[in-house]
Amino acid sequence: MARNPDELPYDRILTPSMSRRVFLRSASLGTVVVALGGATYVFASDEDEKKARATMRPDGRPRLPPGQRLITRLKPMGGTEGDPSPGAWRLKVHGEVEQPFELDFAQLLAMPQVEQVSDVHCVTKWTVLDAKFTGVKVADLAARAKPKPSARHVIFEANAGYTSNVPIREALAPNVLVAHKYDGSPLARAHGAPVRAVVPDLYFWKSAKWLTGIRFVAADKPGYWETRGYHNHADPWKEERYG
Amino acid sequence: MADAPRKVRWRPWLRAVHRDAGYLAVGLTFVYALSGLAVNHITDWSDGDPSFATYQTIHEVGPLRGDDQAIAEDLRHRFAIEETPREVYRAGESELEILFDKRSLHVNTATGHVVDEGQKPRFFLRVANWLHLNRGKKAWTYVADAYAAGLLLLATSGMFMIAGKRGLLGRGAVFVGLGIAVPVLYVVLAGP
Q1: Of A5, A78, A86, which is closest to B12 when you measure between CB atoms?
Q2: pLDDT attached to residue A46
Q3: Chain A contacts of B89, Cβ < 8 Å?
Q4: How would DSSP label each residue in A19-60?
């Protein structure tokens, strides 16, 4: 006679659909298949990464900074999207400068344009090689604004109060741009349309999207991510990820 | 001779309650769990906002002639866009920018190369986030409260479903202890 189900052993109330042995064997097999699939992927991408690590930049540093993995296209990493309208866009160049000014999109296009191929390094550990940006050198904008000798840092200002701080020496490097095109096409909305900063030698959060201002300052002022625990400088080759 | 008092079999009832509450909770659990994962990892999401997916498509429509507004109108019809452009901006001799609310057409008028990019809502996540973050009407608060009560019922009934050493008197107690220890340890080690 059947006993009260409350008193039956657990494994007799809920009859298992497979034995423990069969379950473990299936789980092990699944794990091996998934691991092999992952290994194939890692191996394939390792070839390109090894090449990038072995290639040296003109400054003697490897093309692929430590801890980075290669991907093929820029990933939009979020942020509060600004107005993508070129007609409404204005850039304010101000702060510790002799001649502050504001320019619109047409005026930006009228300035000397640079087409530049750069590597992009995101703090979330992906790198894109040979990203092509078109824009105007920040150094050219600075030449027009004439920074005062007191100016020591540059703050990139963007939509919704986003800021990023860069030492002036690095902000005026010849590869630092105010870009309006990526890969020959106008910037996509998710990449900061109509205009973003491009500071290729620092982690990419410094390259503010939906750029609205460039402010020269005497004293450093940590920006949005820098005040949220990320590194103040952000050199990818020193893995300056967190402060 | 009087019958012996019947023993009340409460566990079958408990299992039935647990089972049916579990069935009822499946839909909302998926909504809250998937939305919770999305909200937790909102900054890791490849497209930024998990409620929307970014897209980019390329079209070759051949050289486009006429004034800017006429070209914009032409492309609207070709791509079946009902919305009126927010802006039509001439960025260069052959470059035209046509902006809609969540969509941009980057047009090379000389070649007819059109980059169509923007955002499309991810239906499930958009709705799930809308529900999870309680952006809807007040009535949803009652549904969410009922769901929370349902989870409490599931957790509580789950503890007493199995008798003996495989239940709360044995390894059940160990697992319950572990489950309680996770938040407690987190607060002790990293809490406010």
Answers
A1: A5
A2: 81
A3: 85-87, 105
A4: -HHHHHHHHHHHHHHHHHHHHHHHHHHHHHHHHHHHSBPTTS
pLDDT by residue (tens digit) across B89-146?
Answer: 999 999 999 999 989 999 999 999 999 999 887 777 777 777 777 666 778 888 889 9
A119-143: average pLDDT: 96
Would the pLDDT of B88 be above 70?
Answer: yes
What is the per-residue pLDDT for B14? Answer: 93
Instruction: In whole angstroms, give the CA distance from residue B90 to residue B81.
Output: 20
CB A144 within 8 A of CB A101: yes
| Per-chain mean pLDDT for chain A | 87
pLDDT 10s digits, B144-154: 899 999 999 99
d(CA B19, CA B13): 10
Q: Cβ separation of B104 and A193 shorter than 8 Å? A: yes
Closest Cα in chain B, distance from residue A60 (Å): 32
The distance in angstroms from the start CA to the end CA of chain A is 70
**Exposure b/e, A33-59, CB count within 10 A at least 16 = b:** eeeeeeeeeeeeeeeebeebbeeeeee
Give me the DSSP letters along B44-85.
T-TTSSTTEEEEEEEEE-----S-HHHHHHHHHHHTT--SPP
pLDDT for A38-63, tens place per residue? 444 444 468 888 999 999 999 999 99
Provide the 10 A C-beta neighbour count for residue A205: 22
Confirm if B53 and B122 have CB atoms less than 8 A apart.
yes
Q: Collect contacts of A224-227 with beta carbons under 8 A, ≥24 apart.
A: A224/A161, A224/A162, A224/A163, A224/A164, A225/A164, A226/A164, A226/A165
The verdict on a CB contact (< 8 Å) between B47 and A87 is no
CA gap A69, A57 in Å, rounded: 17
pLDDT of residue B70: 96
Alpha-carbon distance A126 to nearest alpha carbon in chain B (angstroms): 12
CB contact under 8 A, A79 and B115: no
